[in-house]
Amino acid sequence: MVRMRHCPIGGVVLCLLSVGLCRAAEDVKITPDVVYGHKFGMALTFDVFTPGTAPNGAGVLFMVSGGWYSQWMPPEQLAPRFKPLLDAGFTVFAVRHGSSPKFGIPEAVEDVRRSVRYIRANAQRFGIDPERIGVFGMSAGGHLSLTLGTTADAGDAQAEDEILRRSSRVQAVVAFVAPTDLRIMVWDAEGHLPAYEKFPALDLKVEEATKYSPLVHVSADDAPALLLVGRKDELVPMKHSEEIHAAFKAQGVPSELIVFDQSDHGLREQDMRQAMTALVAWFQKYLVK
């Protein structure tokens, strides 16, 4: 277990991306590389960031995913991104999934579902309430977050693996610039943007994409969802968030859409600051007793 008190030089770029914060919360406990499963002889891991003072008992998963690529970095460099959550008392889990191009979206979804099940099964070990779990991510990470929020299951009571008997349900979602309808993005979709061909994970048939499109699976029992988008986003146009926001509202699911007029797929620093404030408030509303 490592104690992290400052952002090392190697994390300068990440600190700039982390809404201008160059220090993580004081006395954060970092538990790196917790193994939550295995596939093809490899470990699936997440890092745990525990606030040193006044933890509130809620856990928040961050989907380490961009373009459905999931890469490892030293957790000390990742921690500054979570400072607003850690300062508010949340325990944060940075979850990595089987990465593109070796693994596709179906595998990534199953991995992150397993991460929720594992964390719930080990909630006491991590000092959290198993019924107060949130998730957030950006772009592909936002897609995975919304997929967790809209396609949860109660677990398989007959499974030999004890972890698979646990629920994959989360209690709150925050999604930044998230794809919600893969049916118009996959390579098999007529008229898809040429830019999408840079992402091997989108090499799916439309029928398969339907299974992993959060928009398709919205129902009344979904987790409350905060959606954050840039009006100028051309890679994942804001209609993705507008349409699922409308679907949530139609089903009576608590949802809020925040649009940043001057941002594109990467939120400007001032917009990211506002977004992180909204994120913390959302999780406080739905996860903190």
Structure write-up:
The chain has 289 residues and is of the alpha/beta class. It has one domain (2-155, 162-287): Alpha/Beta hydrolase fold, catalytic domain (Rossmann fold, 3-Layer(aba) Sandwich), CATH 3.40.50.1820. Helix content is 29%, strand content 20%. It contains 9 helices and 9 strands. It has a 9-stranded mixed sheet with strand order 1-2-3-5-4-6-7-8-9, with helices on both faces. The radius of gyration is 18 Å and the shape is globular. Mean pLDDT is 92; it is low at 1-22.
Concise description?
It contains nine helices and nine strands.
Structural class: alpha/beta
Radius of gyration: 18 Å
Overall average pLDDT: 92
SSE arrangement, N to C: EHEEEHHEHHEHEHEHEH
CATH superfamily: Alpha/Beta hydrolase fold, catalytic domain
Spatial ordering of strands, largest sheet = 1-2-3-5-4-6-7-8-9
Our count of domains comes out at 1
- Note poorly predicted spans: 1-22
Shape: globular
Strand tally, please? 9
**Which CATH-level-2 architecture?**
3-Layer(aba) Sandwich
In CATH, the topology is named: Rossmann fold
Strand content: 15-25%
CATH class: Alpha Beta
Q: Roughly how many Å apart are the termini?
A: 28 Å
| Helical residues, percent | 25-40%
Please outline the major beta sheet: 9 strands, mixed
H/I helix tally: 9
Keywords:
alpha/beta; Rossmann fold; 9 helices; 9 strands; 29% helix
What is the secondary structure topology, with strand pairs?
Layout: E1 2-4, H1 12-17, E2 28-39, E3 42-50, E4 59-64, H2 75-78, H3 83-87, E5 91-96, H4 105-121, H5 123-126, E6 133-138, H6 140-150, E7 172-176, H7 206-211, E8 225-230, H8 239-250, E9 255-260, H9 269-287
Parallel strand pairs: 4-5, 4-6, 6-7, 7-8, 8-9
Antiparallel strand pairs: 1-2, 2-3, 3-5
